[in-house]
C-alpha cells in the first residue's frame, strides 16, 4: 500500500498534459518534427509561457489495446521522470515505435531526456 501512495504523488500533472483534439491537430499542422531512435516528437511553441504540455499518440498499428496501453504507460512514466528538465512553453506530441515495448525503461528514459534536451535547443531557434 505504501508503494501505491508513492505512485499517486508522482502522477503526470494534468496541466502538463495535451488532451484536446484541436491542440493535437494544431501541433501536427503548424508544428515541427524531431525524430529520435524509438520516438518521433511533433512540437509547437506556445506564447503563454505556462510550461510544456505533452500528449501521446499510440496507433493501432502498434498492436492490440493491451500493448498500446502498456506503451502509453511506459512513455508517460518516462516523461514524468524527465519533465522537470523541460521548461520551454511547447506542446509536444510523442509517437512511439513498437520497439518501445521491448526497450529497457532506463534506455527509454534516457532517450526521452535526450529528446527533451534537443527540443529545448530547437525551440529557441524557431
Description:
The chain has a single domain, classed as Ribosomal Protein S5, domain 2 (2-Layer Sandwich), CATH 3.30.230. It has helices spanning 2-9, 21-30, 65-82, 105-124; strands at 32-35, 39-45, 53-56, 90-96. The chain starts with a helix and ends with a helix. The model is unreliable at 1-9 (pLDDT under 50). It is an alpha+beta fold and 126 residues long. It has a 4-stranded mixed beta sheet with strand order 1-2-4-3, with helices on both faces.
What would CATH call the class?
A: Alpha Beta
Question: What is the percentage of strand-forming residues?
Answer: 15-25%
Count the helices. How many? 4
Largest sheet: 4 strands, mixed
Please trace the helix and strand order, writing H or E for each element. HHEEEHEH
Structural class: alpha+beta
What is the CATH T-level topology? Ribosomal Protein S5, domain 2
- Outline, from the CA principal axes? globular
Q: Using only CA atoms, what is the Rg?
A: 14 Å
Question: What share of residues is helical?
Answer: 40-55%
- Cα distance spanning the termini: 46 Å
Uncertain segments of ≥5 residues (pLDDT<50)?
Answer: 1-9
- How many domains make up the coordinates? 1
Give the overall average pLDDT.
88
Oligomer: single chain
Secondary structure blueprint with pairings:
Elements: H1 2-9, H2 21-30, E1 32-35, E2 39-45, E3 53-56, H3 65-82, E4 90-96, H4 105-124
Parallel strand pairs: 3-4
Antiparallel strand pairs: 1-2, 2-4
Helix pairs in contact: 3-4
Key terms for this structure?
44% helix; alpha+beta; disordered N terminus; Ribosomal Protein S5, domain 2; 126 residues; four-stranded mixed sheet
Amino acid at each position: 500500500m505504501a508503494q501505491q501512495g508513492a505512485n499517486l504523488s508522482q502522477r503526470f500533472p494534468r496541466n502538463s498534459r495535451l488532451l484536446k483534439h484541436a491542440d493535437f491537430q494544431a501541433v501536427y499542422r503548424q508544428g515541427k518534427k524531431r525524430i529520435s531512435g524509438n520516438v518521433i516528437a511533433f512540437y509547437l511553441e506556445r506564447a503563454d509561457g505556462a510550461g510544456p504540455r505533452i500528449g501521446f499518440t499510440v496507433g493501432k498499428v502498434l498492436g492490440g489495446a493491451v500493448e498500446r496501453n502498456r506503451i502509453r504507460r511506459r512513455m508517460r512514466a518516462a516523461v514524468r521522470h524527465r519533465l522537470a528538465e523541460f521548461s520551454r512553453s511547447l506542446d509536444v506530441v510523442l509517437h512511439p515505435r513498437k520497439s518501445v515495448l521491448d526497450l529497457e525503461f532506463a534506455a527509454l528514459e534516457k532517450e526521452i531526456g535526450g529528446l527533451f534536451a534537443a527540443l529545448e535547443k530547437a525551440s529557441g531557434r524557431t
